[in-house]
Amino acid sequence: MNAAPVLSVRDLNVGVRSARGEVDAVRGLDLDVARGETLALVGESGCGKSLTALALAGLLPDGARIRSGRIVLGGVSIEGLPERRLRRLRGQRVGMVFQDPMAALNPVLTIGEQIVEAIRAHRSVSRAQARSDAESLLARVRLREGAQLLQAFPHQLSGGMRQRILIAIAIANRPDMLIADEPTTALDATVQAEILALLDELRRDSGMALVLITHDLGLVSRWADRIAVMYAGRAVETRSAATLADAAHPYTRALLAARPRRRPLRGPRQRLAEITGRVPLPGEVISGCAFADRCAAMTALCRRQAPETQRLGDAGVSCHHPFAPRREVALP
Amino acid sequence: MTSAAPAATGPSARPHSTGRYVGLRLLQMVPTLLLILVTAFLLLKLAPGDAAQVLAGDSGGGDAAYIATLRQRFGLDQPIAIQLLLYARNVLTGELGFSFRNNMPVAELIAARVVPTLLLTGLALLVAVLLGVAGGVTAALTRGRLADRLIGAIALLLYATPGFLLGIGLMILFGVVLLWLPTGGYADANGAAEGWAHAGSVARHLVLPVVTLGMLYAAIYSRFTRSAMIEIYAQDYIRTARAKGLAPARIAWRHGVRNALLPLVTIIGLQAGSLLSGAIVVETVFAWPGLGRLAFEAVQQRDYNLLSGLVLCTGALVVITNLIVDLLYATLDPRVRLR
Amino acid sequence: MTLISDIAAPRTLLRLDTLRRLPFALRSGLVILTAEVVIAVLANWLYPGDPFDLAGAPFLAPGDDPQFPLGTDILGRDIAAGLVHGARISLIVGFSATALAVTVGTTVGLLSGYLGGWVDHVLMRVTELFQVIPHFLLAIILVAILGARIEFIVLAIGLTSWSMVARLVRAETLALRELDYVRICVAMGGGPVRVMLTHILPNVLPPIIVAASILTALAVLTEAGLAFFGLSDSNHISWGGMIGASRDALLTAPYMTLIPGLAIVVTVMALSLIGDGLTALLRRGDGA
Q1: The ABC transmembrane type-1 domain covers which part of the protein (chain B) (predicted)?
Q2: Is B224 part of the contact surface with chain C (CB cutoff 8 Å)?
Q3: Tens of pLDDT along C225-242?
Q4: pTM (predicted TM-score)
Q5: Based on CB atoms within 10 Å of each CB, which residue in B103, B133, B281, C158 is the most buried?
Q6: Which chain B residues have a beta carbon less than 8 Å from that of A166?
Q7: Per-residue pLDDT tens digits for B311-325
Q8: Touch between chain A and chain B: 3 or more Cβ pairs under 8 Å
Q9: What angle do helix axes B272-285 and B258-270 make, rounded to 10 degrees?
Q10: Which residues in chain B touch residue A90, judged by CB atoms under 8 angstroms apart?
């Protein structure tokens, strides 16, 4: 890691207003994303990964706010910025793509109008120039007949096409970072691979950082450089995707074990390994480690004291009893 | 690395679908218009007294020969079905009977009063839409705060106040106490004014009736726009717009209001009849010479002939308005237009 | 001030737990309306005698004479008595006309939505007819033809407003018809009447109730309008009639107009608030 990271998050706390007052949905999060790198943010529903993404893009809804911590994007601290400054970042320094493309485009405006709008929001170019740029963008996301497509309306297009258009909108102004929150979950399996390949290609071509949020570990090993596993609002493990199999945190290992396997050629089918227990709700007060109840390696210490983040090689783990990596010495 | 051209229903597909849509809607209008015709006919039949007397204006002093002509014209000695057909034929040729009280054929009477009513209701609708949308958008964007509650309270108050009460109140305030505006009528009494002076006089007389009629609907549209905007803001494309870094005003207008117009237009269509109903009250209070006031006079004089003609006319107006509204909706919503 | 189109039907029946948990709008509306109903019921005890009687000197302002706390009108009639007795008419007409509209509208809507086909076509054309002719026009014509008596006024107002209910019920029926438990009932040999009454109707009731509150508000306004134009039952005093009778004294004694006017406004507001509250309650119950 030679150049300064594009994104640097330190001790991020995001609070959400609920019936019980403000609760912390994200706690003490540390993240780094280098230029041109893909970071996968993995976790189950409710772990806080989507809120993290929104916080990074400056898109937190009413009722959620950054309580403390730092977010540094391209050298600029953005966590305390007023709304007006954040608006200038959105769509220009940070692009974001969301899960369900079906309702994400305005039904009464043409595709062209919506892409041009994204361009002209941050650059003063003529309409003609913007339209021409829009056409090039459509080509970059591998959509043919761009000129005709510009005149089309969203309801005339398939889900995969809409998602490509949304990606085009997100990268229209060459952002430093693109955040994709489960970009393929709502799409057909065949289209999923295409979209992910597209994102990967765009990242390589432009050198922008890609933050990929997903609950699918299979995607992670294929497409990500580094991964951060989140549980109950914290990052419990961060490591390079290549060393995923050596995961040190019990939760990560449990997730890996829980992936469905192909049926063996001989012998009985294996049961799906599950993780017993349930994910804690945001705001649930927990003493000690949040994963303790569900952890096979739990001890009394785990219940008393929340674990600090230790470094094991280039990985960070938040556990009292991380699995020992094959090559390295276990910590005291 | 595949890609695809737009699906078969691209923007250039079926260019004549709009024409077909219009044609279809026109066809659908016909049964409704026929039913209105039948209703008007039934009203004539239901009215007390001999039908011919009714048609001749029930003034008791009808010219015997004229009544005999009417009898024959409307086939009053024929079976009901024939009468209905004759009535239909007469209506289509513009013969709606005679109004003795006003000493004019009904058709002429109505024709003279249509324009003032259209003027009143048209302007009232404009005021209602402008104020209503502005109020509703403001309320939605300041949801839960003072502005929202205030707008909601005012809307509720306006809605609960009967039209005649509001009209009387405004008339007293502006016409008598403040003496800013005339208290009724169409134009200044010395009707020699021409051109711009006349137009100005009419305009001054229009203010109070338009405001009275418009405020009620402004209240309704405001409430409606508010809930439509709140629903729209929960949609994904608003999130996309925010992610683009657009200014809130632009999002509210181009993504919010633009989509809220769709259900709003539908509501306006549904309320066309209601608007004319309101016009009856407002025109009477302000002595505005339109169809509404004509209806009131007709009721007082028990002029069933005229009333029947009014039912026909207002019914037709509402049906036409609905058609216009449907077409407007089709232009606003590409999903309807391009199927 | 809910529009019919605001109403969303829940898929489960409404549960009213306790009065305390109801939204503020609903509570205040109910309180006001109940108070009015009580006053109206007790009218003959509160102000025995005929409110049309010339009880005192005319043009007494409120507060002039302790015997007439709200003053007297042009002819010397007690305004307070008129107010209390007028409440009866407004509420009776309001509720009855709405009951009529709801009955007719629900029947038409159920039949139309459930049976479909040509029944639907015909019924919808008729519904459209009543929707297209301006309501107030139809009401004044009907009252003019039939006569200005309470029964006919109720009939006229009811006839002009049933179309809204019919459309609403039809839309809901169309949706409910496709639900599994309805299909099962049909598959097990349930006849249309049985299905409609036992499965569909109970689930359409909540939005109908909300619609009823709106329609009652409209009915009160319409009755006031009719009365103002001299089309009320001359045997019964009514708020609109009181306003109409005081037109000449508008400038000199505005209280004669304002007091019954205020009564109308408060009643309609209460009904609107109830409608709003019920709608909010429905939405809340749906998502729970």
Answers
A1: 114-329
A2: yes
A3: 998 888 888 888 888 888
A4: 0.84
A5: B281
A6: 240
A7: 999 999 999 999 899
A8: yes
A9: 70
A10: 242-245
